[in-house]
């Protein structure tokens, strides 16, 4: 493997899997730094497809050696979705082209020399990373950032600033086919946030212990003069304390934490809470984000902000002016009094917290939960009970087709895949109206016909969900 030790002479960079959120960020960053950039992917969908179009970065459809021969890159960045058998990954090896991974490229070209703030956790990474970057930006610190979504305040999923801080979403997913370790280890955190740890990514982690082990490596990596901000209310996070060499600062609801929140006022317009620092009342903060989980997200970012030099007024300014993330409780449209919302939630815990946030934002209104089991992990049988509990926060549930059904059956066997009919039957036994509809147009027709003025349609998927959001809005307009 021609491991890259110097990028001095690189001018043309090709990205395999350019449509992924982090890869698209890297493409934009490389272009801004003056590199000639191109890449390939399959069936790229919004917001990344439109984002790359706006940047005028060439996205080639599919994977073929011809793309590499035509572009002749000085460096190939191979995304973690590309297996060694991927046609372009294989061609890269055959042509002896220099190659590396996305996280390595980001660290070597953009993070090195800056204060690295790495946001990790099973849930809430994108919101918490975006908010942290905005706290620094609104305080005039001009940070750099990379996030797995598009924050409305920045209208981009990356920013290259002149300030000393680089804020990045630390994904625990594997780095590449030639590096099976988690991405976040490559970012060498000076300040590490560990927000929560649950079982996820069942396609690469066999059990919860293996995920905990990955986070333990991240904690061990933080040097003694640096800091780990840890959710002390999460037992899996708290158990990592013994592995820490850096300063260990806990946050949570429990008054035993170093930083804790009290007196939350949760209302449709957002949330207000009191933050305490090492036993002393610190500030009363306000945020437009909804739900108790976002109190902890905001509290964690406020704690990091204080560690890196922001005062309470600067933190408050950032919190109250944060506009959220596209595909995180994003209102896609309102037709005939029916609100259609897009959200990335796909893990049972994320679905439960998203529904809780929707209840706070739309009190007394009927909430439909539309869910697409999109990822390999979200289709696991182990999550059945979690889904049963999570969706009880909805008035009406529609579960769409399992996206990777054939791939799942081949890799794991149908006996390990969740049974949607069993989940639907259980909902009905608990008087929750639920059904499975395997056709996107049929879902839109059902919602368009039955939704009433005041209803909230919460569409949850880690992917495109067949464009059902716009199909529903079009159907509502037609009605």
Q: If you had to describe this structure to a student in words, what would you say it looks like?
A:
There is one protein chain. The chain is α/β, with parallel strands linked by helices. It has 3 domains: 12-101, NAD(P)-binding Rossmann-like Domain (Rossmann fold); 113-321, UDP-N-acetylmuramoyl-L-alanine:D-glutamate ligase; 330-478, Mur ligase, C-terminal domain (Protein-Tyrosine Phosphatase, Chain A, Alpha-Beta Complex), CATH 3.90.190. Helices cover 34% and strands 24% of the residues. The chain has 16 helices and 23 strands. The strands form 4 sheets. The protein has a 10-stranded mixed sheet, with helices on both faces. Strand 10 (174-176) and strand 11 (179-182) form a beta hairpin. Helix 1 packs parallel to helix 2 and helix 12 (384-390) packs parallel to helix 14. The radius of gyration is 22 Å and the shape is globular. The model has no long low-confidence stretch (mean pLDDT 90).
Strand content: 15-25%
CATH architecture of the largest domain: 3-Layer(aba) Sandwich
Coarse shape: globular
Largest sheet: 10 strands, mixed
Residues in helix, %? 25-40%
CATH superfamily of the largest domain: Mur-like, catalytic domain
Count of helices? 16
What is the CATH fold-level name of the largest domain? UDP-N-acetylmuramoyl-L-alanine:D-glutamate ligase
Structural class, by secondary structure, is alpha/beta
Low-confidence stretches: none
Distance between the termini: 59 Å
**What's the total count of β strands?**
23
Number of structural domains: 3
The mean pLDDT is 90
Q: What is the strand arrangement across the widest sheet?
A: 8-7-9-6-12-13-14-15-16-17
Question: What is the CATH class designation of the largest domain?
Answer: Alpha Beta
Oligomer: single chain
Task: State Rg.
Answer: 22 Å
């Amino acid at each position: 493997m021609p491991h890259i030790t110097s990028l001095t002479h690189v001018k043309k960079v090709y990205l395999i899997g350019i449509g992924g959120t982090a890869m698209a960020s890297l493409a934009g960053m490389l272009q801004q730094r003056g590199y000639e950039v191109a890449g390939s992917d399959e069936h790229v969908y919004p917001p990344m497809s439109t984002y790359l179009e706006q940047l005028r970065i060439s996205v080639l459809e599919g994977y073929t050696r011809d793309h590499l021969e035509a572009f002749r890159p000085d460096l190939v960045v191979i995304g973690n979705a590309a297996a060694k058998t991927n046609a372009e990954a294989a061609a890269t090896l055959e042509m002896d082209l220099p190659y590396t991974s996305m996280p390595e490229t980001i660290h070597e070209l953009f993070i090195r020399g800056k204060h690295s703030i790495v946001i990790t956790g099973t849930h809430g990474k994108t919101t918490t990373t975006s908010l942290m970057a905005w706290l620094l930006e609104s305080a005039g610190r001009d940070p750099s950032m990379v996030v797995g979504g598009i924050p409305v305040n920045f209208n981009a999923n990356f920013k290259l600033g002149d300030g000393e801080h680089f804020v990045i979403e630390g994904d625990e997913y594997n780095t590449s086919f030639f590096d099976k370790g988690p991405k976040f280890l490559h970012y060498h955190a000076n300040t590490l946030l560990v927000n929560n740890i649950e079982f996820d990514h069942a396609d690469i982690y066999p059990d919860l212990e293996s995920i905990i082990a990955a986070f333990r490596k991240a904690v061990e990596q933080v040097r003694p003069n640096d800091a780990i901000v840890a959710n002390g209310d999460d037992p899996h996070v708290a158990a990592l304390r013994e592995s820490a060499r850096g300063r260990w600062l806990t946050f949570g609801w429990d008054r035993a934490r170093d930083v804790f929140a009290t007196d939350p006022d949760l209302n449709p317009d957002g949330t207000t809470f009191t933050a305490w620092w090492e036993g002393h009342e610190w500030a009363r903060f306000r945020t437009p984000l909804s739900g108790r989980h976002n109190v902890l997200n905001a509290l964690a970012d406020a704690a990091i902000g204080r560690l890196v030099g922001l005062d309470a007024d600067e933190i408050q300014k950032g919190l109250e002016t944060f506009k959220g993330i596209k595909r995180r409780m994003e209102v896609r449209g309102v037709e005939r009094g029916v609100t259609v919302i897009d959200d990335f939630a796909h893990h049972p815990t994320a679905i439960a917290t998203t529904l809780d946030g929707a209840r706070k934002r739309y009190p007394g209104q009927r909430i439909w939960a539309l869910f697409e089991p999109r990822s390999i992990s979200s289709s696991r049988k182990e999550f059945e009970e979690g889904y049963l509990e999570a969706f009880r926060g909805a008035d009406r549930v529609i579960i769409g087709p399992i996206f990777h059904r054939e791939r799942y059956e081949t890799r794991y066997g149908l006996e390990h895949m969740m049974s949607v009919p069993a989940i639907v039957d259980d909902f009905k036994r608990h008087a929750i109206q639920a059904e499975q509809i395997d056709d996107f147009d049929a879902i839109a027709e059902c919602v368009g016909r039955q939704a009433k003025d005041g209803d909230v349609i919460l569409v949850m998927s880690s992917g495109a969900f067949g464009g059902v959001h716009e199909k529903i809005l079009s159907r509502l307009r037609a009605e």
